[in-house]
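> @MW can you paste both from yesterday?
MW: sure, first one:
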Amino acid sequence: MQEYTGKDPWKILDIEPGADEQKIKKAYRKMALRFHPDKNMDNPERAAEAFKRVQDAYERLMDPAQRKWLKEHKDEINQEDEVQEENLAFPLDVGQYTTSACFNGFDDQPNSFYSVYNEAFRLIAQWDGCIEAAPQFGKSTSDAASVTKFYKFWKLFRTKRTFSWKDVFDTRRAENRFVRRAMQKDNEKERQAAK
């Protein structure tokens, strides 16, 4: 049983974003039959999760206000899916790099200062998707221009990630614009704290 595990309701139901209610209903019936736990006895837990995603996608797309919001924010949803397909967890424990115990010596050996911090910054750049643009940490023999380039890049560094998975509130469920603004404000606080 192969299913889409992201958040995009159109992809969950395997339909185009411009689909009308009739097409949404038809797609829902098809996917509900496909992923119903009774039809997938070999893995009922996984089928139940997929079935729940199908039901949720259907409910969201049948609500005209939510459908409009989802259509307007489709790119963001797909971007979140791409991020979630990667490992959301930060690739390393930054705390371990705040002490000299994490490296041995200042030469260019595998566990030296330069090797350890080069790998740490490489992982951060890879996690953020800027691996091509990020200069390497360098070696004990790096020239001043390389060192300056490295520090300039990281001093100005701002992550591309939205940290939307840290949101506390689903703003689509807000009763009115005042509540939505308050929700957005709280969500933004959580995102900034995570960054």
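MW: second:
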Amino acid sequence: NSGCFEEYVGKKGIAWLARKYDLPTTDGYGLYTLAKRGNIKALRAWREMGKYLGIGLVNVINSYDPDVIILGGKISRAWKFFSLSMRKEILKRSFIRPCPIRISSLKNSAIIGSAMLAKQALTKQ
């Protein structure tokens, strides 16, 4: 396992997988749309992305033992296409109890989280 997590599951990773599977799109929404239509190559790309996401998350789980992990952002729309392969990878590599992984129901969760961190930092001073 080598490389940066973002390279495998972020925009670059999605584009790389789309090219690897010779798909007519290189963005997450296009890949999602193809998978939704039942495109086998797009479904395989999402499963592979789920595997990489699982590898990254299991490192967080094994290091920090969180009570829950919440995923947000546009990628969460494709949950049903990658969640099984992600969970399989986590179960295979985890050496502590399973950690629930959920999809955020909040819109703009990254912005809200950033604002909360800033607020916490300011109130500690």
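> thanks! The beta strands are 69-71, 101-103.
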